[in-house]
Amino acid sequence: MAHLALPGIFDSVDALQAFVDTIPCPIFVKDREHRFALVNRTAADFFGMDGSELLGFTDRDLFPDAHVDEYWAMDDLLFSTGETNENEEDLLDRAGNMRRIITRKSPIKLASGDDLLVAVITDVTEIRQAEAHNRYLAFHDQLTGLANRAMLYQRLDEILSAPEPRHPTVLLIDLDHFKEVNDCFGHLVGDELIRSFADRLAACAGAGDLAVRLGGDEFVLLLADAKEAEAISARILDAACAPFSMGEASVTIGASIGVAKSCGNCDLRSELLRRADVALYRAKSLGRNRFALFSPDMDDGRQIRMQLELEMRQALGDFSQFELHFQPQVKSSTGEVVAVEALVRWRHPRLGIVAPSRFIPIAEETGLIVPLGNWILEEAIRQVKALDLNIRVAVNVSPVQLRQAGFAERVLSTIARLGCSPDILELEITETAVFYANKAEIEILDSLRSRGVRIALDDFGTGYSTLSHLRHLSVDKIKIDRTFVRSLGQVSDADAIIRALVQLGRHLGVETTAEGVETEEQRRLLSELGCTELQGFLIARPRPMAEIEPSLRNDARKLAS
Ligand code: C2E
Ligand code: CA
Ligand code: CA
C-alpha cells in the first residue's frame, strides 16, 4: 500500500498525541504487558485521569481485579491469535454515570517487531436504551404499562412448552358497562378508569403471574398455576366493583371473568384462550359481575345458543313464530284495567314456547332485537287499538333499540300509521338501561315524552339509580320490581322500601305500579302503602289477546254501567 507523506504528523510522539487527541471517541494503545502506551484526551477524560498520568499504568491501577482479569484475558487472546475482538460492558464514567460501552481491540505490529493493541471505545448507552424502550413497547400496553398480547402469548408458550409440567390458568376479564362510562363521561375519563383498574389488577397478581391488557376493556391475569384461581377471581371482582373516583364523580362498574385452567388435554395456547373466552361468555350471560370456570359442557351450551341465534334469524323472516301475550295493569283503588303490557313469546317449532329471558339477551347481543322490537311495537299497538277500549299498551324497549338512529321517528310514525294518539303507548325501559343511557338516548326518550308517549321506569329498585338520576329523565310511572313485592311480609324492611318508593313516586308526581302481585295479602299491603297500580298473576297471567279480551270487555261494561 502506498503511503501519503504527512510530514510533521507522525514523526514525533507529541505530534501523534496531538492527532489522536482530536478524535472524539476514547482511544488507547497497550503493549504486551498491558501497559498504556498512548491514551487520547477523550479516553483520559472518560477514565477521569490526566492522559500523561496513565502512561505506563495498567488496568490494575484503574479497575477492580475481577474486571482486569477479564480485560487481560481478552488482550492475551488478541496477541496470540492476532484477531480483533470486542467486548460490551457497563462501566462507571468519571462523573459516576453508568455507561454501556463496546471496546474494540485490534492488533498492530510495529516496524521494530513489537506488538501493540489499539482499543477504540464506543459509547452505546443511548442506543441500548432506545433498544430496550422499543422492546418494552413491543411487549407492553402503552396506556397502562401492563404486559400486552404479544407478551402474553410469549409467556404462555414458554410455560406450556416447559419440560416440567405446570398448570397455568388464564383469567379473561372484561369490564361490565365500560362502554357506557366512555359514552357518558368521555374517553379521557375512560382511559383514567382503565388505568386505575390496571393498577388494581396488578395488585391482585402474585409473583410469577402476569397482568395483561389485551386492548379496550379486556384484560388477562395469567396465573403461574391453578391453585388459587377462584380466590383471585373473587378478589378481582371486588377490585372492579369498588367505586373509581374520577375527579368529582365516582363511577361504579364491575367485571365478568372467564377462567380456564390448563390440563392434560389442553396444552395449546389458542385452546386455553378459547376456553377462557367461552367461560367469560357464560359469566356474562349469567348476569355479569361474576366469574365462570370453563367446563366442557359450556361448549355444548354455546352450540345451543348459536343454533338458537340462527333459528331466530330465520324466524324473523316472517315473524310467524312470534306472538304477543298481554298482562293487565289495574288501578289499585278500583281494579279498573288501565293498560296491558305486551310480553313477547317465541313459539319454537322444536322447543315449544321459549321464554323471553332466554332469547331477548341473544337478540340484544346480535342486534336482532331491532327488527323484533319494531315488530313487537307495531303488533302490540295494533292489537290494543283494535279493542277500542281506551286502555294503553305498555311495550318493553331494550337499550339497544334506543341506540338505533331514528328510533323516536319510527315509534311516532308507527303510531300515526295505525291511526292512534301517542298516549296509547307506554314505553317501559329498565332503570339500569336509563342509568347507563347517554345524553342522546335520554333526549330520545324526552322527545318521545314531549310528543305524548308515556315512559315507565321498569324493574325499579334493582338498578343503580339514585334520585339524582331520576332528575335527568322525566317519567310517567315507576314499576316497583317484583323482588320487593315478593319480600313483602317476609323481609322486615320490604314494606319500608316500598313505602319510600311510593313516596318518591308521589313526590315526582308519577304513578307507581307494583309488579308480580301474586297474593291477596300483597294486594292489600300494596294498596295500603299507596301503590297506584298493580300487575301480577293474582290479577291475570299474561295471555294472548283473544283470551283476555272477553274479561277486558266485561270490565269495561261493568265500569260503564
Ligand atoms: P318484565 O318487563 O319485568 O316483565 C314482567 C315479567 O314478569 C314477565 O315475564 C311476566 O310474565 C312476569 N310476571 C308477571 N306477573 C308475575 C307474577 O305475579 N309473578 C311472577 N313470578 N312473575 C310475573 P316474561 O314475560 O317472562 O318476561 C321476562 C322479561 O323479558 C321481561 O321482564 C322483559 O324484561 C323481557 N321482555 C318480555 N317481553 C319483551 C319484549 O317484547 N321486548 C323486550 N325488549 N323485552 C321483553
Ligand atoms: Ca316490563
Ligand atoms: Ca319489570
Task: Kindly describe this structure.
The chain is an alpha/beta fold and 561 residues long. It has three domains: 13-128, Beta-Lactamase; 141-294, Alpha-Beta Plaits (2-Layer Sandwich); 315-560, TIM Barrel, CATH 3.20.20. Helices cover 46% and strands 23% of the residues. The protein is built from 22 helices and 22 strands. Strands 13-14-16-17-18-19-20-21 form an eight-stranded mixed barrel, surrounded by five helices. Strands 2-1-5-4-3 form a five-stranded antiparallel sheet, with helices on both faces. A five-stranded mixed sheet has the order 7-8-6-11-12, with helices on both faces. Strand 11, helix 10 and strand 12 (291-293) form a beta-alpha-beta unit. Helix 11 (296-315) crosses helix 12. The mean pLDDT is 90. The chain binds ligand C2E and calcium ion (2 copies).
Question: Brief description of this entry?
Answer:
The radius of gyration is 38 Å and the shape is elongated.
